[in-house]
Amino acid sequence: MLPQIQELSITSLDELVISPAQFINFMNDANDVIHPVGAIYTSTVQLVRYSFWLGEQKEILPKQEYKDLLSKLGWENEEKAYLKIKAAFNGFTPDELAQVEPRTIFLIALNFKKYQSVIPQMKGLAIITQDAVRGFMKKCYKARPKKEEGKEATIWRMMPDNLRACVYC
């Protein structure tokens, strides 16, 4: 059971649909959060909860009803990123990911091939923190090959058909 959110009275993810006026009030109240880091943690939990809820709706609703839901939410063609979050972080609870910034959550989910090794490493942590996740992500970076020093810069490039072409022409 979710704790009730003041003004919205949400006790279930099924009640996530709110009116535009309630949304504006909620966003105005978000500015009154005492500590900005707390706002980031709250945002991450809500982001992951919403992603899990949306993925669940896609699984249980008939295709047309799901499309109607997206239409009501105004999320047509916007839901893909959230569904990727559900796919990437399905083995976690939203509260376990609370200390990871939303941007990092999106980065891992939207570039899952590159960061797929990060997820098992996160499961091994007692407390998942932003620094730990960023450290795992840094290990996924591949160093660019260094330029050979003997070559001079040129505007000519070799094309696949073995003909030369001017890059700046």
If you had to describe this structure to a student in words, what would you say it looks like?
The protein is mostly helical. Helices cover 50% and strands 4% of the residues. It has eight helices and two strands, in the order ααααααααββ.
Write a concise keyword list for the protein shown above:
169 residues, 8 helices, two-stranded antiparallel sheet, 50% helix, mainly alpha
The helix content, as a percent range, equals 40-55%
Q: Quick one: overall form?
A: extended
- Strand order within the widest sheet? 1-2
- Radius of gyration from the alpha-carbon trace, in angstroms: 22 Å
Overall pLDDT confidence: 78
* Largest sheet geometry: 2 strands, antiparallel
Sketch the topology as an H/E string, one letter per element. Answer: HHHHHHHHEE
How many runs of DSSP E, i.e. beta strands? 2
| Poorly predicted sequence stretches spanning 5 or more consecutive residues | 1-18
The class by helix and strand makeup works out as mainly alpha
Distinct helical segment count: 8
Provide the β-strand percentage band: under 5%
Distance between the termini: 64 Å
